[in-house]
Specification:
single chain, five-stranded mixed sheet, four-stranded antiparallel sheet, 6 helices, 15 strands, 23% helix, extended
């Protein structure tokens, strides 16, 4: 296509091959309009080897620095959780644990993970945390957690009103059964220190963070307020050498010794085996 001009015709040409479109002014002057469409990787072979080595070294240094930072944060977190006097030292029987992963002794994966069984108050001992909760918490306790309980649960607007309220971060006190076969929820509060003050037995009562959601229930036939407790960190990761003992004796009952630090995170301190089940 051509347009007449003062200095002659101006042509837009697209030469054959991979050359970019050019503006032709006159007979021998070419001005490129678009960047070279050839892939960048074709030009890398023209880069000096020294420049390529510098780029690789920089990338490697950045990766190593990121790894070192992640390890430092992990070590700092562990040290902070272990600092000071442990909040809880507790012993659980294997019946109190549900297996999340328990690989064979010859498996390359050496990790063993369990979840502590727990239940709401007033439930049969055979029921775990999947059961529907009873009316176990008072209206005043819900208000102390920050919930607005101004609407009667029997009101036609109650379901929508309480469903709109966001969940609250709190702490829960859970008591170990006498047989050591699980935990039962006792109480929830905003302040973990206040909970520990009301339940000072650190060998049988765990204080753990949780998410609490208010709900309307009609389990007894009369609408009432209750709460759902979720996101309780009950998972236990058992490292070596304790995991090796458990994987080597897959059918043996055992007792797991735990301590919880200032961040309410568990640390395995020992495993004792008893007679096979």
């Amino acid at each position: 296509m051509a347009w007449p001009g003062k200095f002659g015709s101006i042509f837009f040409l697209r030469p054959a091959g991979f050359s970019p479109p050019c503006l032709v002014v006159g007979l021998d002057a070419l001005v490129a309009l678009l960047r070279d469409p050839r892939p960048i990787w074709r030009c890398r072979r023209h880069c000096p080897p020294a420049a390529q080595e510098v780029g690789v070294k920089k990338s490697l240094l950045v990766a190593l620095a990121a790894l070192a930072l992640a390890n430092a944060i992990t070590l700092w977190h562990v040290a902070r959780n272990s600092a000071g006097v442990p909040d809880t030292s507790i012993t659980l029987n294997s019946e109190a644990l549900s297996s999340l992963s328990r690989s064979d002794a010859k498996d390359e994966d050496s990790s063993v993970n369990f979840n502590i069984r727990w239940q709401y108050p007033g439930m049969p001992e055979t029921m775990d945390d999947w059961g529907w909760p009873r009316i176990w918490i008072a209206r005043e306790a819900l208000q102390r957690l920050g919930f607005d309980c101004s609407v009667s649960p029997a009101s036609s607007d109650a379901q929508a009103f309480y469903r709109r309220q966001p969940s609250r971060r709190a702490f829960v006190a859970m008591q170990l059964a006498t047989s050591g076969t699980g935990l039962t929820l006792l109480e929830t509060a905003v302040d973990s220190n206040a909970l520990r003050g009301r339940y000072p037995d650190s060998k049988h009562v765990l204080i753990l963070p949780a998410i609490v959601t208010i709900q309307v229930t009609s389990g007894t036939g009369v609408p009432a307020l209750t709460a759902i407790v979720d996101k309780v960190p009950t998972q236990i990761h058992i490292p070596k050498p304790f995991s090796t003992q458990i994987r080597t004796h897959p059918n043996a009952a055992f007792r797991l010794h735990l301590t919880y630090g200032s961040l309410h995170e568990p640390r395995v301190t020992g495993v004792d085996f008893s007679t096979p089940r």
